[in-house]
C-alpha cells in the first residue's frame, strides 16, 4: 500500500482504520465503540474496551521472550550497567506495585515520580500503570518551586524519588529539593518512597518517608494482578516543557495511547520484537514516556535508559552503546547532535554501527547543517519528526514502515496518519495555499494517543487549544508552518515567536535557518524586538564555531556584516537582523528548547519572565551584557 492511500483511509474512515490498528495490542475486554466524538473536542477512543499499559509492555511478552532483554539501564555517571529481561522486569514491577499498594495507593490516585534516569523510575511508571494509579513524572532537573507547582496541580498521594541524580560526575541532590518543594506546596503527599543510591545523605522524615530497599525486601515474591482499565481511564499526567510560559498538565488515556504507540512503533519507527531501541531523552519528557518506557516495550523491544551526558567519558559513548547492544533505532534531539558535532568524529568511527537503521530527531527545528553532518557520519537515514507533549506521538514524519517515503532537508515530513493537518490563515481561518505561511492546525477528532484534556481543567483545554480560529473548532499547535506542493511541512517557529517588521510577518525560524547557513555560525536565536519605526526588528544572538578567530572589534563587525549579507541574499532586506550579537551560550529550557521569550524580554528591557524551566540562568547574563554593550 502507498503511504498516501494509508493516510487517506485513516482520515476518511477513522473508525475502520483504528479498529484495525487496535489489534496491535492485547485487550482483556473488547471495546463496543471505536470512537465517540459526540462531545467535540473531547474524543473517546475504544469505548468500553479494557486493557492495561503494563500488561502490554511486560506481561504479554513473558510467553515468548521472557529471557530476552527488556530494560537496559546504563549510567556513565555511576559506571553501572544493568540488563533486565522481561521476566526480571515483570518481577521488579510487581514488587514496586506491591509496595505502592502497601502504602495505600488505590486506582485513580496520583503518584508523582521525581527521579533520575535509573531503572526504578521505569519500574515505578509501569507499577502505576499496572494498578491503575496515575503517574506524573516531573523532570529530575527541576528545582523545588517548579516541583511544588506540579505537586499542587497533580495532588499525589505518593511521591517516588531518590537521594540524588548525577551529572558530569557530580551528585545532584534530589531529596533536599523535594523536601523544600513539599514545604512550599499546599498539597502534602501522605508518603514519600525513596531510592537510596548512596550518592548523598538522605535523612528520612518520620511517618512520611519510607526506604525502597527495605520495602522491596519484604515484597520479593509479590504477585500483583493487573488492574484492567476502561480504555478512557487516565494513565498519566505530564506537564509540557514550559517554553512559552506556564506548563499545561497533559492528561492521557490508556487504550488509545497503547494503540497509538504500538502503531507508531510499527509504521513510523519500524521496530521489531527482540531488537534494541535507544532514545536518549529523559523520562521527564514526553519522548521518555512514549519512546523510552512504553513504546519499545509494547513493541517487544529492549529499551535503553541512559544516565549521563553524550560526551562522557568521551563523545563516542552513545556509539559504543549502539555497537554493544546492536541498537537498530535511535531517537535523540538536535541539541545533542550539535554537542557531538563539536567533538572529533573519529570517536564515532571507532564503533561498528552496522546494526543501526535510522536516527530519529525531534523536539526542536533540525537545521540542515546538523542534519547533513550526522547523516554523513552515521550513513543512516536521519528522520526528523515533529510533535508535542500534547500529542504523544509524531504529527509529522515519514512512515517508513508503510512506504519508503523520502525525507526532505529542513522538513519534518508529511502528515502522519490519523492527523488531519492543515495550515490555517490565523486572520481568516481559511486554509492556506501551498507555500503560504500559516498556523499548523489539526482538525478534530485528534487521533488515539493525544491528550484527553488539560488535567482538572476541561475549560482550559477548550480555551487554549480549540478556540483560536474563526469559523471552525480546530486544534492549534501554536507553531507556524508551510506545506509545500508535495505535502511536506516546514516549521517556521512558534506563533508567539513571529516577527512583524513593517507589516511583513517573518518566522524567527526562517531567519535562524538562514543565519546558520553561514559557515562560522554553530547556533543562533532570533527574536523580534520592539522598534518605533518598523513595529519590530529582528535581533540575532549567535554562537560561533571558532570564537577564538574573532578577536578584534573590527573582526566582529566584519562578521556581523557578513551574516547580515547572507540574510539579505536569502530572505531579503526586511528579514535582516538589526544586530547580530555573538555570545557563548543561549538560554534554553531544561528540555533543550530556545527560550526566545526571555531573550526578547531582555532586549525590550522587561523582566525575563517565568524562568522555572531554564537550564542555565547564566546564559541570560550574557544576553544582557550583549544588549547593553
Ligand atoms: P510549552 O507548550 O509549555 O510552551 P513546549 O511547546 O516547548 O512547551 P513540548 O511539548 O515539549 O513543549 O514541545 C513541543 C514543541 O516543540 C512543538 O510545538 C514545536 O514548537 C517544537 N518541536 C518539536 N519537534 C519539532 C521539530 N521536529 N521541528 C521543529 N519544532 C519542533
Ligand atoms: Mg507547546
Automatic annotation (TrEMBL):
Protein name (database record): Propionate--CoA ligase
Entry-linked SUPFAM superfamilies: Acetyl-CoA synthetase-like
Keywords: ATP-binding, Ligase, Nucleotide-binding
Domain AMP-dependent synthetase/ligase residues, every copy: 59-445
Family: Belongs to the ATP-dependent AMP-binding enzyme family.
GO biological process per UniProt: propionate catabolic process, 2-methylcitrate cycle
Residue ranges annotated for the AMP-binding enzyme C-terminal domain, each copy included: 510-593
UniProt-listed InterPro entries: ACAS_N, AMP-bd_C, AMP-bd_C_sf, AMP-binding_CS, AMP-dep_synth/lig_dom, ANL_N_sf, Propion_PrpE
Species, as recorded: Undibacterium parvum
Domain (Acetyl-coenzyme A synthetase N-terminal): residue spans on this chain: 3-57
GO molecular function: ATP binding; propionate-CoA ligase activity
Amino acid at each position: 500500500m502507498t503511504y498516501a492511500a494509508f493516510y487517506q483511509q485513516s482520515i476518511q474512515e477513522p473508525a475502520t482504520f483504528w479498529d484495525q490498528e487496535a489489534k496491535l495490542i492485547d485487550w482483556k475486554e473488547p471495546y463496543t465503540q471505536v470512537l465517540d466524538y459526540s462531545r467535540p473536542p473531547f474524543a473517546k477512543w475504544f469505548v468500553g474496551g479494557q486493557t492495561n499499559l503494563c500488561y502490554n509492555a511486560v506481561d504479554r511478552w513473558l510467553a515468548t521472550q521472557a529471557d530476552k532483554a527488556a530494560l537496559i539501564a546504563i549510567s556513565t555517571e555511576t559506571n553501572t550497567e544493568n540488563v533486565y529481561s522481561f521476566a526480571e522486569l515483570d518481577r521488579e514491577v510487581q514488587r514496586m506495585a506491591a509496595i505502592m499498594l502497601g502504602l495505600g495507593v488505590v486506582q485513580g490516585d496520583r503518584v508523582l515520580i521525581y527521579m533520575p534516569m535509573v531503572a526504578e523510575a521505569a519500574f515505578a511508571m509501569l507499577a502505576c500503570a499496572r494498578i491503575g494509579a496515575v503517574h506524573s513524572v516531573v523532570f529530575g532537573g527541576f528545582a523545588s518551586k517548579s516541583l511544588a507547582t506540579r505537586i499542587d496541580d497533580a495532588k499525589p498521594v505518593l511521591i517516588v524519588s531518590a537521594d540524588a541524580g548525577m551529572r558530569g560526575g557530580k551528585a545532584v541532590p534530589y531529596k533536599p529539593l523535594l523536601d523544600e518543594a513539599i514545604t512550599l506546596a499546599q498539597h502534602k503527599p501522605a508518603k514519600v518512597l525513596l531510592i537510596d543510591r548512596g550518592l548523598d545523605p538522605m535523612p528520612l522524615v518520620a511517618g512520611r518517608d519510607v526506604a525502597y530497599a527495605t520495602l522491596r525486601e519484604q515484597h520479593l515474591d509479590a504477585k500483583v494482578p493487573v488492574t484492567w482499565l476502561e480504555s478512557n481511564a487516565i494513565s498519566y499526567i505530564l506537564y509540557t516543557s514550559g517554553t512559552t510560559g506556564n506548563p499545561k498538565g497533559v492528561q492521557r488515556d490508556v487504550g488509545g495511547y497503547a494503540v497509538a504507540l504500538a502503531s507508531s512503533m510499527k509504521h513510523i519507527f519500524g521496530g521489531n520484537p527482540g531488537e534494541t531501541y535507544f532514545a536518549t531523552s529523559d523520562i521527564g519528557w514526553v519522548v521518555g514516556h512514549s519512546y523510552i518506557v512504553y513504546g519499545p516495550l509494547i513493541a517487544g523491544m529492549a529499551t535503553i535508559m541512559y544516565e549521563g551526558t553524550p560526551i562522557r567519558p568521551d563523545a563516542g559513548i552513545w556509539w559504543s552503546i549502539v555497537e554493544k547492544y546492536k541498537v537498530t533505532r535511535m531517537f535523540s534531539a538536535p541539541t545533542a547532535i550539535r554537542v557531538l558535532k563539536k567533538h572529533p568524529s573519529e570517536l564515532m568511527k571507532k564503533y561498528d554501527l552496522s546494526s543501526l537503521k535510522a536516527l530519529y530527531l525531534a523536539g526542536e527545528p533540525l537545521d540542515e547543517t546538523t542534519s547533513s553532518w550526522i547523516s554523513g557520519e552515521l550513513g543512516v537515514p536521519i528522520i526528523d519528526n515533529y510533535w508535542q507533549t500534547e500529542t504523544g506521538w509524531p504529527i509529522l514524519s515519514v512512515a517508513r514502515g508503510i512506504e519508503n517515503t523520502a525525507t526532505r532537508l529542513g522538513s519534518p515530513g508529511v502528515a502522519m496518519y490519523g492527523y488531519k493537518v492543515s495550515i490555517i490563515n490565523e486572520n481568516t481561518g481559511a486554509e492556506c495555499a501551498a507555500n503560504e505561511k500559516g498556523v499548523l492546525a489539526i482538525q478534530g477528532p485528534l487521533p488515539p494517543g493525544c491528550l484527553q484534556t488539560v488535567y482538572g481543567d476541561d475549560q482550559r483545554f477548550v480555551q487554549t487549544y480549540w478556540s483560536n480560529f474563526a469559523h471552525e473548532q480546530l486544534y492549534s499547535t501554536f507553531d507556524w508552518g508551510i506545506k509545500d506542493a508535495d505535502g511536506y511541512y516546514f516549521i517556521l517557529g512558534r506563533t508567539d515567536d513571529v516577527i512583524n517588521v513593517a507589516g511583513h510577518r517573518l518566522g524567527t525560524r526562517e531567519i535562524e535557518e538562514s543565519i546558520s547557513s553561514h559557515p562560522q555560525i554553530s547556533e543562533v536565536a532570533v527574536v523580534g524586538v520592539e522598534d518605533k519605526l518598523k513595529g519590530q526588528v529582528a535581533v540575532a544572538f549567535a554562537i560561533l564555531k571558532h570564537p577564538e578567530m574573532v578577536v578584534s572589534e573590527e573582526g566582529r563587525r566584519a562578521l556581523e556584516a557578513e551574516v547580515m549579507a547572507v540574510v539579505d541574499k536569502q530572505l531579503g532586506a526586511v528579514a535582516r537582523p538589526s544586530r547580530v550579537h555573538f555570545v557563548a551560550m543561549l538560554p534554553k529550557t531544561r528540555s533543550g528548547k530556545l527560550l526566545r521569550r526571555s531573550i526578547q524580554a531582555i532586549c525590550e528591557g522587561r523582566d525575563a519572565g517565568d524562568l522555572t524551566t531554564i537550564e542555565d540562568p547564566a546564559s541570560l547574563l550574557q544576553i544582557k551584557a550583549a544588549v547593553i554593550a
